[in-house]
Amino acid sequence: MKSLHVALLAVVFGLLTSCNTQTQQETTAAVPEAETSQSAGQSAVADDQSQQNVVQVAAGSPDHTTLVAAVKAAGLVDALTNAGPFTVFAPTNAAFDKLPAGTVDGLLKPESRSDLRNILQYHVYVGVIPAERFDNDMTLGQVNGGRVKLGLKGDQPTVNGVKILSSIPTSNGIIHVIDQVLLPE
User: Fold this and answer.
1) Which first-to-last residue range defines the signal peptide (predicted)?
2) 49-178 has which CATH code?
């Protein structure tokens, strides 16, 4: 009788083990490959319904192709597509063209990534400061640890003396378009 119980337990154990293996295989097969591999980050989320974030707005602007290339090269796309909120001072292509010849190409090289990140992070404040709130002698602590000075030249808002050309609200903050690259001290 004892051997019958042992044999019966062995059969039940074998059935349970095979069912569990089959369930695991079915579950694994049901999960799309993208979910089982490492995630690409927030920037990989497709959403055509919501207001665009700072990266999407910049990527859609023909005047910010250099900035977008720099953000990609610095590995900051996912950080800037997160919830924020962010205030981004976004230099135009013409602003990058004002830098000495070869500067942008040099910064886009992999060995210059930390310098590029430092410069780009100097253009980002965590929080939303609309241009209407700019006041003389107002300072902001930037993501890179540096500080920028906000001000007014007449009614024109400025950052470090550079005029804000336009402001664009986004889903995760605001972009202030500028025509110079801000360089950390």
Assistant:
1) 1-23
2) 2.30.180.10
